[in-house]
Design goal:
The complex is a heterodimer. Chain A is mainly beta. Chain A has strands at residues 22-27, 33-34, 38-47, 57-61, 67-72, 84-92, 98-106, 109-111, 113-115, 118-127, 132-140, 151-154, 157-160, 166-171, 174-181, 188-194, 198-204. The radius of gyration of chain B is 25 Å and the shape is globular. Classes of the chains: A mainly beta, B alpha/beta.
Chain lengths: 213, 698
Amino acid sequence: MASDGAADAVDAGAEAIQAHTTSLVAWDIPSAIVAGDRFRIAVGIKCANECNLTNGAFGIYDHEGAQVATGTVSGDRWPGTTGLYVAEVELVAPAKEGLYTWSAKTPALDVGVPHAEGAVSFGVRIVSPPEYVVTVETVDRASQAPLAGARVVMHPYKAVTDERGVARVRVAKGAYRLFVSQTRYLTFGVPVEVTRDMTTRAELDVEPVRERN
Amino acid sequence: MAKKRDGQQNDRKLRDGKAVSRRDFVKKGAAAGVGAGAAVLSTSGTALAQVSPADAVKWHYEADIVVIGAGCTGLPAAIRARDLGVSVIVVDQNFDIGGKMLHSGGQVSFGGGDPLQLRDIRGERDPEGFVTAPRLHTVEELTEDPDFLFRDHTDWSVMDTAAQAPYRYNERDLHRAYADNCSAARAFLMANYVRFGRISGTHGNGGMSRARRAVTFLMEGATTDIKRGTVSRQDAGIRGVSSSHFAPRFMEDGAKVASPGARINGAALSRGLEFAAREKGVRFILNRHMDEIVREQQFSGRVVGIRASYSPRFDPATGARLESLWQNGNIDDRTETIYIRARKAIVIGAGGHGANPQFRSMFYPAWREPAFVSSGWALLGPRGQDASGIIAGMRVGANLAGMQQNLSYGSTFHFPGTLATRDPYTDMLPGHPTFSMRGSTGIPLGTDSFQHLIVVNQVGKRFFNELLVTTREGGAAFPAGPGKGQPKSGLDHVQLDWRNASVANVRATYAEPSSIHAALAMNEGSKAPDFLSGPVWAIFDRAAVERDKWNINPPFTSPTNGFFFSADTIEELAAKIQKGHEFQRVPLAYLAETVARWNSYVDSNRDPEFGRGPDAPMHRIEKPPFYAASLYPVWHDSYGGLRINGRAQVIDMQGEPIPGLYAGGESSGGGNQHGLGRALVHGYIAGSNAAGEPTGTR
């Protein structure tokens, strides 16, 4: 790991330098992961003092504390950040359904400048293979025009409507609240019981703009 | 001690230097005239002298009528007085004309069978032919008379969804006069370059029974020409890009109420009236803050004039003094303190108290928080809406009225829902001279978009369901119905009916949203003596911005004004807020924990703290960069002020008019109708009566 050019070298007689705080961020974790499937997440490491963390190592640990993957961050900083060095890592989902807490950790490092350990926890929801397809047709209620790019959520499953306003969500059998949202519209929500493939229609209303008089 | 930073250094220097010296006005022997018991009430910013003795004042200017404030009370008062043949000087603390009216939406509710209702009933167009849109209401919804309007405005029985009674406490004489003068006021405005579109609805607390509201407009044209009724595209504003000196807010499309090419908002009203005022010879002294009303004796005799101090504003970048759009009729006097004699009368149209934390804390101590401002804060500057008109009246013995009515309109103070700007009510874009004072337009979000973020208090804890944070009671007004608090809907609503106020009806319709109160509540960061609640922050991530397609770039945000931050991690975000926001007095110690807990609620699809989940999806906050944008509440309306009668005369503690003193709009109290209509009619009445006052001899 390269250290920041302005960082101080530790010298035998000098006072111990306080370790830099290291933070980890994990994102793009899929909301519903089929048991046993492979999935990818993004991991970023940040030094509070903006040190260059190229090749910084981290490990991914499952809900039982076992290390399930390792990775190293590249020299690329995540867009929009000043010092978050990133890596993508591939993981394998556990075999059993459930909501698990996994973590990413980076060990304490001392390469000229000490860096403290860092860790972040994240939820990993494992589902059984979804059996059914729910087709959602989404329109603007007033004009009946299809809405492309509308976001469909049947927690933990998600989909986005295509240019015809249609989304296909693969879900397990069960009871859901179906939400369809689109920018500048009120969210459409209905309870749905899924026992077979089905089609449903979502008519969205434009959110009234509140007057500022 | 609450942090304060006055960005306008010159203003502050000038303000600090304005302590009035007694040698400015005391002649030999006059010192004895200043009573030892003279009460002194503090106005924001000025060091006060004792009450100026009327017989010792050296007047710098004089006019028949002195009007304080060039807004929606002052301008009609001034024009009306000129029409009746008297001379008028208008003073305004700001550098430009229009007050809060200039940045309003331009919606004006009158009624009682006013000319606009009659025009629409007949399906007629306006004389200039601009209004080609069809009538928007039925004939019955537009048909009424002044008695009907008066009953609506004094209806004891009407309850709103917050279980408030917005018409019960209205001053009766005042509203009788209001009802009797709406027609004349509407006609007066239309005769003074104001164009109205079709009637559409009614303002909050403007009456349950009829449609009374219309918006003002100008037609987009090659140039701005008030006589022709046109505004240039540049002056009207370019959507998402620019406002202008002419119109500090983008003028919206008015095709539905007028015709294609109509541009609507308060600039059409304000600039039209200003044009008329200047054309008719009203004189303006801008950059001039009224500090004191001079009365013959402090609590007796006539009012004879005002003392006013120089209150310029300067561009922070260039140091140049800000100037009004038009100058004909301006008196540019840069003397520190001047006295202006009012030979007949003074009209107080100085606006309300929304920007005075000490005054507004009378209604709600949590609003002593200096961070929170009133709408139009950048446009009007630090001396705007400072309660100075009300305080000046109180100093000469005026009574107050309607002091509880701030609580019977849901927009008095609320969360507009715009992020990343100190004044979230107005959406000024670059192009207006005061844009640099706010630095950002703000990110406007609808209620539904709040599903993509969490809202935290000054220590970083959530305090309410985010989807309900901007919900507010909208005021009980036409059309009636359970959604507004009435048992019957539309034209079936019955005036003065006990069933409107029955316990059963209130129980069935009650829907008071309490998010604003949760936001203003004390938290771990609130410290003695004021226990201020501090700023409120919207926290979100890059995924929210991409998902809901927000524009978080300048001018909607500013990288430097301290109301928007971006960071690589949540911990870093908390540190940036504390360092960069002038009112963040404590660390957001819980922010990282709050975000982690929120993400766990999203994963389990349940929010045990604040009940998110049933109404919209929940989204993790996990993708960097992370953002914090201020979510400030605003004090927008101002109800409660000087008591006035139906002649707009200010009434003293004995119930008697203070001779020569008039007031209206937000400087007055006893009325609860939101918006411009109230003030415009007050101004019309005040100008009409002030012109008929006898000429004083002092």
